[in-house]
Structures are given as C-alpha cells and as structure tokens.
Amino acid sequence: MANREALRDLQSRLAGRLQAARSESVTVAAWLAVQAGGRDYLLPLSQAGEIFPWTGVQPVPYTQNWFLGIANLRGTLAGVVDLALLLNHGRSRSEQELSETSLLAFNSALEVNAALLVDQLQGLRGADAFVQSEPAPARSPSFFGSVHIDSTGRRWQELQLQRLSQTAKFLSIRA
Question: What region does 106 belong to: left with phi over 0, alpha with psi -120 to 50, or beta?
C-alpha cells in the first residue's frame, strides 16, 4: 500500500514537472563555462565534446610546455593541451593539482584528436545568463569571440575551438 502511494506521488510530481516544462520558455544552453588559469571561458557546445576526469598522459619529448602529452580517451588517442599555458597565463601543475582538473575533448565533427585541460567546469550557460556582451579585446587571438558579462560583473571570454584548432600555434607542438 505504501509503495502504491509513493508511486502515485512520484507520478504526480513528474506530471507536474512535465507540465511546467511545457509552459515555461526553454532556455537553450549555448556554451560550456570553464575556468583555466584563474580566467573564465565559454566554449561553444557545438564544438565541445566529451568531458573526462584527469587521466595520466604519456609525455611526448621535445614539445611545447603547454602540450602535456597523449591520453587514451575511450579508445581514442588525443593530444592534451593545457589551455592556460597555451594562452600564456598558466603554470605547470603538480600531480595532485592535475588530479583535480578535467579534460574536454573537441567535438568529433571538428576532426581534431585533442583535449583541453581545464581547471574547473562551471556548468552550461545560455545567452540569458549575461547582461552585456562586447567584442573581443583588440589584438586578441583570432579564436577569441565576444566577451560576455554576467550580472555579477564576471567577464567570460568566448573561445572558438574550431578556429583555435586551426591556428599555427596550436598545430606547432614542437619545442
């Protein structure tokens, strides 16, 4: 008897949630918000792939300091790039610090076997999460998109992963 009541209660709550979802305007998330090297970034969801916890990488000799090595991500070998170091505002991390990071693979549609090391995942964001936008700063890299500012004044730099993956710097891992 108690199980039936619990089931009816669950069904009632689900029906209420479905009705609320139908009646509310749906906000579509456009970006994955991440933090790297103490800075906030927005990565287009259409260009971002799967998120992985830190996994050890196989170092590759004679490469840039931002190229951490190769990781096996669900059977795919991917080059691991430290986003903060690539953007010249990070520092090398200890193994303990690395264990608290995440790897964000590029969307397979971009045909780039790479993943970005980010310090923290900050969730999904839609355009409604921001009160203001402005163009990328002068003399910024070609893969920088707009800067979006949220209601607390936090500035989020949009990064176009497809453009990033095609830059000479990203493609030149040799030290």
Answer: beta
Rounded to whole angstroms, the Cα distance separating 111 from 162 reads: 9
Lowest mean pLDDT among 2-16, 71-85, 93-107, 150-164: 2-16
Give the whole-angstrom CA distance, residue 140 versus residue 161: 15
Verdict on whether the full-model pTM lies above 0.90: no
What is the percent of the chain where pLDDT is above 90? 78
